[in-house]
Amino acid sequence: LSLVASQFAAALAVSEALAAERHRAEALAELDRAKTAFFSDISHELRTPLTLLLGPLEDVLADPGAGLTGTTRDGLALALRNGQRLERLVDDVMDVVRLEAGAVVQAPQPVDLAAFTAELAGVLRAAAERAGLSLHVDCPPLPAPVLVDPRIWEKVVLNLVANAVKYTFVGHIDVVLRTVGEVPGTGPLPLELTVRDTGIGIPAAEQARVFDRFHRVLDARARTREGTGIGLSLVRDLVQLLGGEVTVDSAPGRGSTFTARVDLPAAGFAAEGRAPSAA
Ligand code: ADP
């Protein structure tokens, strides 16, 4: 009888431990939901006044009849640039929150990915040239439009190219989109986006960590203060959402090559492909 009693006591202890563990997991999940809700609320609260602040600033700067003096104009332009920086930061935090909550709903549509990628890279051409860099885009037409959420692809391309511009002080940047390997007659297109720069490079020991949230390499921090360490973690999560993978190959002082490999469904080989508007 005492054996049965002790077995019963042991079973009870195990079930109590399990219940306690379940309770702890539920409490943690609840805390996580609260954190997500908090960040989501606060970023929305920041976003609205920012939009109301930047709109009039943009208008007055674009208005030739506004009669701004040189110093006023410079001051307003500085305010606008920094406001836009803050806006990007808030948007990044909102993306992170949505991704962590599993709340990113993809809205795939047929996209001429070669034209769209070239257009996106082109957005940063002026910034590259201002920094004395040349930006070369090589996106030959693909055999078919692909089904992808353009907002996701846009973030991937813009983050990678913006980093290449930010961390390169001499030389050039190449943006290439091409199919890899055997291209099937039907089914998804095997695609590779490559963003190559001749910039500061990333030490081997840091290469895996640059995709971690908030991680910045010391050398990069020293050279440019602007950065949060969010961009590449977003790129990694978004490329994974598309079912692909992003990798880096880099040598300090020589440059970096970021490669995103994705298989995207062809949106009908006969369909007419057009780049979506940037909206
Ligand atoms: P941020 O640029 O805001 O710091 P990211 O997440 O985009 O954040 O990048 C993380 C870190 O990876 C950067 O701080 C930098 O150290 C390194 N890095 C990213 N892209 C490059 C690049 N093209 N060349 C060199 N270092 C890079």
Write the layout of secondary structure elements.
Layout lengths: L1 H61 L7 H31 L8 E3 L1 H11 L1 H6 L3 E5 L7 E3 L1 H17 L5 E8 L9 E9 L20 H6 L7 H11 L3 E7 L3 E10 L15
Helix pairs in contact: 1-2, 2-7, 3-5, 5-7
The structure holds adenosine-5'-diphosphate.
Adenosine-5'-diphosphate binds next to helix 5 and helix 7.
Protein name: histidine kinase
Subcellular location: Cell membrane
Major sheet summary line: 5 strands, mixed
The helix count comes to: 7
**What kind of oligomer do you see?**
single chain
Gyration radius (Cα, Å) is 24 Å
Q: What is the spatial order of strands in the main beta sheet?
A: 2-4-5-7-6
Q: Tell me what portion of residues adopts beta-strand conformation.
A: 15-25%
Bound molecules: adenosine-5'-diphosphate
Ranges where pLDDT stays below 50 over 5 or more residues in a row are 270-279
Counting DSSP E segments of at least 2 residues, the number of strands comes to: 7
Rough shape? globular
Spell out the helices and strands N to C: HHEHHEEHEEHHEE
Distance between the termini: 75 Å
Helix content: 40-55%
Report mean pLDDT, rounded to a whole number.
90
> Which class of secondary structure composition applies to the elements?
alpha+beta
Protein name: histidine kinase
Subcellular location: Cell membrane
Domain Histidine kinase: 41-266
Q: Can you describe what's shown?
A:
With 279 residues, the protein is α+β, with helices and mostly antiparallel strands. Helices cover 51% and strands 16% of the residues. The chain has 7 helices and 7 strands, in the order ααβααββαββααββ. It has helices at 2-62, 70-100, 113-123, 125-130, 150-166, 218-223, 231-241, and strands at residues 109-111, 134-138, 146-148, 172-179, 189-197, 245-251, 255-264. The strands form 2 sheets. Strands 2-4-5-7-6 form a 5-stranded mixed sheet. Strand 6 (245-251) and strand 7 form a beta hairpin. Helix 5 (150-166) runs antiparallel to helix 7. The longest helix has 61 residues, at 2-62. The protein is globular. The N and C termini lie far apart (75 Å). Residues 270-279 have low confidence and may be disordered. The structure holds adenosine-5'-diphosphate. Adenosine-5'-diphosphate binds next to helix 5 and helix 7.
